[in-house]
Amino acid sequence: MSSSAPIVYTVTPSRPAAHEFTVACEIASPDPTGQTLRLPTWIPGSYMIREFAKNIVSMTAHCAGRDVDVTALDKCTWRAAPCEGTLTVTITVYAWDLSVRMAHLDQTHGYFNGTSVFLEVVGQSDAAHDVILCAPQDPSCEGWGVATTLPRAGAEPWSFGRYQAANYDELIDHPVEMGTFDRVTFDVLGVPHHVAITGRHDTDMERLTHDLEAICREHITFFGEPAPMESYLFQVMAVGKGYGGLEHRASTSLICARADLPTSDTTDITKGYRKFLGLCSHEYFHTWNVKRIKPAAFTPFDLSREAHTTLLWAFEGITSYYDDLGLLRSKRIDTKSYLELLGQSLTRVYTSSGRHRQSVGASSFDAWTKFYRQDENARNAIVSYYTKGAMVALCLDLAIRAGTNGQRSLDDVMARLWANWKATGKGLEEDELERVAMDVSGLDLTDFFNQAVRSVDDLDVAAALKHVGVTLHLRAAESDEDAGGTPPKNVKGTRKESSYLGARLRASGKDVSIASVDHQGPAVEAGMSAGDVIVACDDLRVNRADLVRTLQHKQPGDTVSLLGFRRDELQRFEVTLCATPKTHAYLTLDEDPDAATRARRDAWLD
Ligand code: ZN
Predict the structure, then answer these.
(1) 243 CA from centroid of ligand 1 (Å)
(2) How far is ligand 1, taken at its centre, from the CA of residue 247, in Å?
(3) Which of the residues 189, 238, 452, 547 has an alpha carbon 20 to 30 A from that of 262?
(4) Are residues 225 and 366 in the same domain?
């Protein structure tokens, strides 16, 4: 059935202190046999069943002044009894999730994704969906404004009032921020871009917009003008400690540490600021790669259950490859800084032995139950489709460049995918990216994809990089905090080979506990397990720092005696340490490459 009257939602931050939004949904022409309503169980971009309905704390319905019965059909679907006239269903939503995936409300600000608050009116998803955003009545919320890319339909800019989405799919793709954010507007190739920062911060907005302008310009130019959105909004929540982002069709929601935002007392791009710009670059690239070019399995989205695809590596991995490359190409960072980031990305793959048990295609498919539900065994069992996907993208890019004498690259593959999407709007079939890559390059990449995407064998990253005059080095980790990307700090010859326990340690009160154990290595051989609380090493009481220091003074082959509790039962573990495996990557430019190699390197990095 169809309806010309829009669905009208009225969203009120009714009880900020109790973290409650009240959301009324008015349906002018409800299904005469009883209107079905449902709420998504997941949000596009975050591949985990989150069952947003768990936060609905009350639901009532009325029609023509009378109450209407609502019956739950399953965990996310309800049916209102048949009625004549406008049906209004009102829910109260508990909003206390400080992430970019759900909703959050208190006296400092309000934020929601449509997937958390907008019931879908089954049968009328293609109708226009109006949203009336009401200002909170709570006096502590005075002066609040609104930052969203929901198209305005009467609301003044940055204000409460009436907005309208063309359909339900669009409705849930424009998150809404409300509060007393700081904002700034800048132009990128004729497209207005905005940054709205909520939370306490001391950001140099001029520096930030200067850098974002360069990054956005790079990505728009990469895919070609015109940009596919009329405007764009970076919705930033600055907190003490946090990191995360979610992409939308014309905006991104970001959470970052306020210390990562740029300040006016320095012009340096700190590591924290570089990380934040990388996040912005990543989410912005998604505007094309996953928000428009997307798997057929997402076209349309079925938000009631998992949507399986083996292609997440292409959407997250290729995006991860281009996010840092975009910082280099837009001249926000130099080659040395880029190679450090690439080395860190490779390190994250090499430190996970799960790469030998799960292919990146399988990691994509099983994201719902594995990547998004990591436990103490994750490192042994799974590979990240972000980091391994970025490694595949790097190797694919270099393979196409090598195989076509530099005539083609991954850039051309992305350009073709974008042209195809613009022509058809169709989702990618599971094998389509591979077909397009082969078509664009003229190369038979069958073996490459079989190995890179469907096997658990390591890619020959070193050889691919050597061809462009870059050397991949692998070294031992120097501490648990060592992220790789840089040469060893210890000067050669001053330090013996470091020893390795085969487990990660976590401080727990005055004790040290085992966070995870390698499925092959000294700790598991000695019978240790994640969760064990270690209290003594060689009969001396230890905390985390003590144990780390003790292990640093040992040699590979030495034995330590660890005493610890599993549950309340004391255990003794005799552990024979091994040499620390070389899992940490760093990259160096070859000093005197031949002219052809130098030309290839310049084509890639300049
Ligand atoms: Zn992403």
Answers:
(1) 13
(2) 7
(3) 189
(4) no
